[in-house]
Design a protein that fits this description.
heterotrimer; A alpha+beta; B alpha+beta; C alpha+beta; A: alpha+beta; Aldehyde Oxidoreductase, domain 4; seven-stranded mixed beta sheet; B: alpha+beta; five-stranded mixed beta sheet; 31% helix
């Protein structure tokens, strides 16, 4: 509940986003739009083989064309992990800037730079590579067999060499309580295997980077990135450059959804070319290269849950297998979060998680919106519906009896990041959702006949807000902000946080405005780079507003204290008796004492006074680690209509409720939910990356012709989407705010699965639920093989 | 391969370009004219991010040979706002928060403009059919549809 | 096994450096550069069809025709297509016509959108109108042409089943010789047509349907703007409550878009019934040869073909003035 005294002037207001005018006029400059004087262009030679040793790279023809060439021989022999969010002892390092062994089709083998892209292309084709082709391993089960060709013999874990057996990158077992005892005391036990697909992020902008050498031996880098500081640190480590000689700029990014959570593979390649040649170089990938660069972690999850006849969960056992592809970018964290999301969905007196992440010769997996959460939630929420069915309890009621809510323990990032839930809008989300979808009128599952059948399903879930917790875990999580009041009363906020498009930086401005009592249009967000900002870990884990905003809020409080201190001197009123409020007529913040309203001064006048009196700047820099990771809850209620002849599924209605605490940007928050639905329905019904088993090539060959995502014609009509927000306040967040972004998509696929079960009486356990799968299941069901389909 | 001089109109200004056969309209707009509002999204006409209007018609500039626009009128997103005044559709996109990462926005706005020029009072179905070739991964499209429909009113 | 980065031994691309000549050019496989158009070629933009034929004859075997370019340039960017000459029909205005004075005549470079927008086409040639209205994306409809869609000869070309079901014929010219053939004789395989060297598609003609004729087109893709998994067009000519004529054509279920003559005769002279239509669907399913690929499976395509044929038949029958089929 919102504290009664909270009266907000900036937070919760719908405003034009700050970068909006630049974006609607084409003026916004993304990495691919940057042109610098004397800039060269680079291209990367990529392996056509999924698994091959690089015997020799001949660059002589390309060099004869005047190109600069970079191969494995040119780069420091430093193994690294592209994503440095895990603490060093949990960091698996298995890759080089350019490979000495290709482990997937598309692995970067060499690179060239030339004055134009056409010249670079010509030079690229003049490179000669000799490969020793090895067995291609695309199936994670086969990868683990005895005698299968090892993709790695060893990698580096922390400072130690770690030998890799049976291509297993990481294994993790987490056990709490006695599951045997729990299952023994269950009235119902269900077990199913679920499979989720390996989909492509399909962010609109492909990866890119521009790198300029500086005359002092340093470099300036403009990358596609979610964290400028982590890019800088990795470049420093790989190329042994002192950090003050590396400036990484924050550049607007054309969508990420996790695809730039790690340092993009082309960044160190471009830097290597710049360091070798002394040229300013631009390297922007093609869509085909990008599709071979990253995918969402696929999963096979075997889940067993038990419950008493009163509908209380007793125990759970989850086996998870993930095909991580050619590199271990964050498999350890992936297994951790799979267990954590599961443990945080429902109270389990006893649980056991056994996870394996396996190398194959495919595109490396990386985080994608929800990092493990869409996968885990699909399995758990599907099985929860089946359990409710088996127990004869309404699915919503069953969830209410078991969910982890107020006072419960929430795992924000696996077992090492835990905090207590302080805000919980779940009952409101479920109650309103039921009402809006017409829950009581839903058909009995599988009772319908006829060609067109409708069904209503729901699923709930959440995402964490950040990865902070009371004690240090396996994940680094803190942010910092620098705020200064200018001499006219406007404010500059200098923050390394990335805005992926969700409006995070607009939220930061509103939080600072709110705290300082200054209208939000007087708050400026400064361009940011690593030389002028303090560390921010990365915009991920739905932490932008909660953790990044929390740091800005902390700095703003300090600035406010300085302002009031000076004002007290000027007005002759005790600091504690002063308030700052925006004055609409003056268009700026005014400091005054409510008991003596004539004692007042505008923030602008005060700041000017500070300057003319040489009192100094009004500024503060603060760093903040949030010690909570509040769940941003979401509930989906979906009605579908299935054409049982063609297997096509139409969304009749979708209701999405969010508990994001205080809503900071109301219109953009709705946009997060609508966007979450679009990506969620793509995951549920459409998207899949299929691979040729023999060659390890994408069947789509990396082209968007066959990498389909939902377009405007696949999305439900305006009147068929209903979004709403719970009346909720997160005590640990800035003005009660927590996260929203990733939560918005997490339960979507499960809600579709449950709606389809309601319509057809068939449980789909494999994503995407395509017309092909629906028709095949219908045929099997009609021929009496229902049992087989249901496993 | 021979470079040829072509004459065209870009955002109301006459241009003379010397272009080779394999030069693409998208590259010329971006690199020669610095009009980087048209984006490379896929290079093969699947995403709509490179959309510009050629003689008023929506065209995928990644699949248009520069030489073939000799004598044409090309409108890019940079030419839509006139004299510093945003087009009402651009304002509608801002009002409806139809912009997130913004990478698809130039193509979306130009497609919306082309639709409204043809059908001043489109239905939601008209909007969805007209813009089905423009991908957006952020918004889920609803706000974009709302922007085009509210502008209608 | 010792491999090399696959090299193109064909020596395409016009040389390279002479002194340090690279004997072979590394092929880009899945990693062609779609930022730019790498292939070098000469662009010929004739203003008349005669000039186009002349150029085509002069450069026989080394030239390709470009209509809208939406498939050709994609093929060239992906480097499936390499050519020395591109002959663009874009500046031949006579080829852009859509003429509905008697039979429907569609010039080779009439855009998909112009056909979709034509009011006569929408009223009388429903299958074609539906194929064009649902065609890919708006930008492709504006840029792409019906002629290009046919000459590309994709098994999944959306306008092909509609035109086949409407009994279209194509007029081909080489500048020296003209010929008209039924569209059903036009396709020879994926990407293959009967067009001989120097021959250009000039126009497509579709006989005006009688009042008691109805047609319909249906398709399914993974999303709306997609290459079809299956496309179906049906034309029915009604005589009282009986079927006088029927044409059924499908796309994406065989090596070419094709008519399924074996199924067309099933209901001739009959009153259409649910069981009759289901027999037609079965005959279609037996006659087609669908494959499994990245877009769908053979089994699903076969199943879907049956469903869509039934749906399209019912729709066409209604449009022919027939009633609900029971």
């Amino acid at each position: 509940m919102v504290p009664e005294q909270q009266q907000l002037h900036s937070i919760g207001q719908a405003t034009w986003r700050r970068d909006g005018q630049a974006k609607v006029t084409g003026a916004e400059e993304y990495v691919s739009d940057i042109t610098l004087p004397r800039m060269w262009h680079a291209r990367v030679l990529r392996s056509p083989y999924a698994h091959a040793r690089i015997v020799h790279v001949d660059t002589s023809y390309a060099e004869a064309l005047g190109a600069v060439c970079l191969t494995h021989a040119d780069i420091p022999k430093i193994r690294y992990n592209e994503r440095i969010v895990s603490t060093p002892p949990h960091l698996y390092r298995d890759r080089y800037v350019l490979a000495d062994k290709a482990r997937h089709v598309g692995e970067a083998i060499a690179a060239v730079a030339a004055p134009t892209e056409a010249a670079a292309e010509q030079a690229l084709r003049a490179l000669r590579v000799e490969y020793e082709v090895l067995e291609t391993i695309t199936d994670p089960e086969v990868a683990m067999w005895d005698g299968t060709e090892p993709i790695y013999t060893n990698v580096q874990l922390g400072d130690q060499e770690l030998s890799i057996e049976h291509n297993i990158a990481v294994q993790r077992t987490i056990e709490l309580g006695d599951i045997e005892h729990g299952f023994a005391n269950s009235a119902v036990i269900l077990e199913r295997e679920f499979a989720t697909s390996r989909i492509y992020h399909a962010q609109m902008e492909t990866k890119g980077v521009v790198c300029r050498p500086e005359s002092d031996g340093g470099i300036t880098v403009w990358p596609t990135a979610q964290s400028i500081h982590n890019v800088r640190q990795l470049l420093g480590e790989i190329y042994s450059l002192p950090l003050h000689k590396i400036n990484v700029k924050r550049v607007p990014i054309g969508g990420t959804f996790g695809s730039s959570i790690q340092m993009n593979s082309v960044i160190p390649i471009c830097v290597g070319l710049t360091l070798k040649s002394g040229k300013t170089i631009k390297l922007v990938t093609t869509r085909e290269e990008d599709m071979y660069d990253h995918v969402r972690y696929p999963s096979r999850i075997r889940l067993k849950l038990g419950a008493t006849k009163d509908g209380l969960l007793t125990a759970g056992h989850m086996h998870a297998l993930s095909d991580i592809g050619a590199h271990n970018t964050q498999a350890f964290a992936f297994l951790s979060v799979l267990s954590g999301w599961w443990a945080s969905l429902y109270k389990l007196p006893a649980m056991k998680f056994e996870g394996k992440a396996v190398y194959t010769n495919k595109t490396p997996s990386c985080a994608m919106q929800g990092f493990g959460n869409p996968q885990a939630t699909f399995a758990v929420e599907s099985l929860m519906d089946d359990l409710a069915d088996a127990l004869g309890i309404d699915p919503v009621e069953f969830r209410l009896r078991n969910y982890v809510g107020l006072g419960g323990t929430f795992w924000g990032q696996g077992p090492s990041v835990q905090s207590i839930v302080l805000s919980d809008g779940v009952p409101e989300l479920l109650e309103k959702g039921m009402e809006k979808i017409g829950w009581p009128g839903r058909p009995v599952s599988g009772s319908q006949t006829g060609r067109y059948r409708r069904g209503i399903g729901m699923a709930r879930g959440f995402h964490t807000s950040g990865a902070g917790a009371p004690k240090p875990g396996e994940v680094i999580d803190y942010s910092g902000a620098f705020i200064k009041v200018n001499e006219d009363g406007t404010v500059d906020v200098v923050h390394a946080l990335m805005d992926h498009g969700g409006g995070t930086l607009d939220a930061i401005a509103k939080i600072v405005a709110e705290e300082l009592g200054i209208p939000s249009d007087r708050i400026g967000i400064s361009p940011a780079d690593t030389l002028t900002t303090v560390y921010d870990v990365v915009t991920h884990a739905t932490r932008g507003v909660y953790a990044g905003g929390g740091a800005a809020h902390k700095a703003a409080r300090k600035v406010k204290a300085i302002l009031l201190d000076y004002a007290s001197r000027v007005l002759g009123i005790e600091t504690n008796a002063l308030v700052i409020e925006p004055d609409e007529t003056l268009g700026q913040g005014v400091i005054y004492c409510p008991s003596f309203p004539e004692r007042r001064i505008t923030v602008g006048a005060l700041a000017k006074l500070c300057q003319t009196n040489s009192w100094g700047s009004i500024a503060a820099v603060e760093s903040l680690r949030q010690v909570n990771c509040p769940p941003a809850y979401v509930a989906y209620f979906v009605e579908v209509e299935v054409d049982t002849e063609t297997g096509s599924v139409r969304t009749v209605r979708a209701v999405i409720g969010s508990d994001c605490g205080t809503v900071v940007n109301p219109d953009l928050a709705v946009g997060q939910l609508e966007g979450g639905l679009s990506k969620g329905l793509g995951y549920a019904l459409v998207e899949d990356n299929s691979w040729e088993q023999e060659s390890g090539r994408l069947l789509s060959k990396g082209f968007w012709v066959d990498g389909k995502t939902p377009a405007m014609s696949e999305s439900p009509l305006l009147e068929d989407i209903d979004t709403f927000f719970a009346d909720s306040y997160e005590p640990s967040g800035p003005f009660g705010a927590k996260g929203i972004g990733e939560a918005a998509t997490n339960p979507c696929a499960a809600a579709y699965g449950n709606a389809l079960y309601n319509a057809l009486g068939i449980r789909f356990t494999e994503l995407p639920i395509t017309p092909e799968r629906i028709v095949a299941s219908m045929v099997a069901a009609e021929s009496g093989a229902t049992k087989a389909v249901l496993v | 391969m021979t470079a040829r001089t072509i004459n065209l109109n870009v955002n109301g200004e006459h241009k003379e370009w010397s272009v080779a056969e394999n030069d693409l309209l998208l590259t010329e707009l971006r690199e020669r004219e610095g009009l980087t509002g048209a984006k490379y999204g896929c290079g093969i006409g699947e995403c709509g991010a490179c959309t510009v209007l050629v003689d008023g018609q929506p065209s995928l500039s990644c699949l248009v040979l520069a030489q073939s626009v000799d004598g044409c009128d090309v409108l890019t997103i940079e030419g839509l706002a006139r004299g510093g005044e945003l087009d009402p559709l651009q304002i509608a996109f801002l009002d409806q928060a139809a912009v997130q990462c913004g990478f698809c926005t130039p193509g979306m706005v130009l497609m919306g403009r082309a639709l409204l020029n043809e059908i001043p009072d489109p239905t939601e179905k008209d909007v969805r059919e007209f813009l089905k070739g423009n991908l957006c991964r952020c918004t889920g499209y609803s706000s974009i549809v709302r922007a085009i429909l509210t502008h209608r009113r | 096994m010792i491999g090399q980065h696959p090299a193109d031994l064909g020596g395409h691309g016009g040389g390279g450096p002479t002194e340090h000549a690279n004997p072979t050019e590394t092929q880009m496989e899945d990693f062609t550069n779609t930022h730019i158009l790498v292939g070098e070629f000469e662009l010929i933009e004739p203003h008349t069809l005669a000039q186009a034929s002349e150029s085509l004859r002069t450069h026989a075997g080394e030239a390709v025709i470009m209509a809208g370019g939406t498939d050709l340039l994609v093929g060239m960017k992906m480097e499936h297509i390499r050519t020395k000459y591109v002959i663009s029909l874009g500046r031949i205005s006579a080829l852009k016509r859509v003429d509905t004075n008697s039979d429907l005549v569609i010039g080779a470079t009439a855009s998909i959108r112009d056909v979709a927008h034509n009011s006569v086409v929408r009223q009388q040639y429903c299958a074609l109108a539906e194929a064009c209205q649902s065609f890919s994306t708006m930008q492709i409809m504006v840029m792409g042409t019906v002629g290009g869609n046919l000459c590309n000869a994709s098994p999944a070309a959306d306008t092909a089943p509609a035109l086949l079901a409407l009994d279209a014929s194509v007029h081909l010219t080489s500048g020296v010789r003209e010929r008209e053939i039924a569209l059903s004789e036009f396709f020879t395989g994926p990407g293959g047509t009967v067009l001989s060297d120097g021959e250009v598609l000039e126009h497509i003609s579709v006989p005006a349907p009688s009042l008691s004729t109805g047609s319909a087109f249906l398709k399914m893709g993974r999303v709306a703007a997609d290459i079809s998994k299956v496309s179906v067009a049906v034309t029915v000519v009604r005589s009282e409550d009986r079927v006088r004529q029927c044409r059924i054509a499908l796309g994406a279920v065989a090596s070419t878009p094709r008519r399924i003559v074996a199924a067309e005769s099933e209901l001739l002279g009959e009153k259409p019934t649910i069981s009759g239509i289901s027999k037609v669907s079965q005959l279609v399913q037996q006659a087609i040869e669908p494959i499994t690929d990245v877009r769908s499976t053979a089994a699903y395509r076969r199943h879907l073909a049956g469903v869509l044929v039934g749906d399209a038949f019912r729709q066409a029958w209604l449009r022919a003035g027939g009633g609900e089929i029971t």
